[in-house]
Amino acid sequence: MGAPARAEAARLSAIFEATGAQPVDTSILQPADVLLDLYGEDIRARAYVTADPLRGEMMLRPDFTVPVVRAHMDEGGDPARYTYAGEVFRRQETDPARPIEFLQTGFEIFGGDPAQADAEVFATIAGALDGLDLRPSTGDIGILMAAVRGLRTSEARKGALLRHVWRPRRFRALLDRYSARTPLPAHKKTLLASADPFAEAGPALGRRSRAEVEARIATLRAEADTRPLSEEETALIDMIVDLRETSPNVLSSLRDIAVDMPAIGDAVTGLSRRLDALSARGIDVDTLPFEGSFGRTTLEYYDGFVFGFQSATRADLPPAATGGRYDALTRRLGQGRVVPAVGGVIRPELVVQIREGRA
């Protein structure tokens, strides 16, 4: 890492420490089982995995949030706030031009009023980036998740949609299937129509047992017998996903949607309170963009407010800063104990590059 990036990381850390954030560090090698449990095998495509004869599978740190949350849930008291700076490592198989090792400087708040904490993290990071030609983006994954939980359908369907909130194409495919917009494939119809699917099957292949295959077939049959999602509910989900306007206009649209989908009411109220808190911190919310799908392709722990800052002239560059709320992550790593938590990270090298006009 170059000296300018290190100096920028130090500048950012000082800003976060001035808010009362405690500097913390985490090991570069993290237990792979924790990340695999959170993200499934998909994380292997994005992280570097190694084997330790005593500790088992380990991963080079793909980000700071998970280890900071683990440490806080094990040892920390609420409320608390932390800052950190160091290298993270990401595989870039689809874009070899992107760096596989880069600096992150972050700011995390645990506890406190969610709207106020969201606003503080966003405003603090926006202030740290003041003077740079960056375009802010915001969203709220919690609104979409609340809408899914309120659907009049089976818990199995809602669970599948919630698992794929961060995979927009898979989410869309499931929504189309559950609403009968996409017909059941012919091979599945044949399978489900058979009284004994194993009668004409060949020899067993792979690692799944017959009992596992039978359970999967039973799940498919239960799914086929479930009534399709209503066109009204599907259309409301589409409206939430497709929102792309200034925050006040989005808030107005969501209040209208909440009339027909009351399940999102609390999340919409949360958005309103956050906008008030942002405005009180000097953020021009009248021009602040909001996208219904923003944040759905990031690491899979954000479950509420999400934000990013992107170069206004180089859309091909990664965001200079990203962040969001991750209350559900504290529940998973805290063995059921939930702590409101929000944070964000800045990439010092990109800040230096943008400031010097090389972006």
From TrEMBL:
Domain of life according to the entry? Bacteria
Tell me where in this chain the Class II Histidinyl-tRNA synthetase (HisRS)-like catalytic core domain is found.
Answer: 9-167, 218-346
Q: Which InterPro entries match?
A: aa-tRNA-synth_II/BPL/LPL (IPR045864), HisRS-like_core (IPR041715), HisRS/HisZ (IPR004516)
Biological processes annotated in GO: histidyl-tRNA aminoacylation
* A GO CC term assigned to this protein in UniProt: cytoplasm
Family matches, as SUPFAM superfamilies: Class II aaRS and biotin synthetases
Pfam families per the UniProt record, alphabetical: tRNA-synt_His
Reported EC number(s) for this entry are 2.4.2.17
Give the UniProt keywords, A-Z: Glycosyltransferase, Transferase
What Gene3D superfamilies does the record tag this protein with? Bira Bifunctional Protein, Domain 2 (3.30.930.10)
Q: What class of enzyme is it?
A: transferase
Where L-histidine binds, per the record, is at 63-65, 90, 104, 108, 296, 301-302
One GO molecular function term? ATP phosphoribosyltransferase activity
What is the designated name of this protein?
ATP phosphoribosyltransferase regulatory subunit
What is the organism of origin for this protein? Answer: Limimaricola hongkongensis DSM 17492
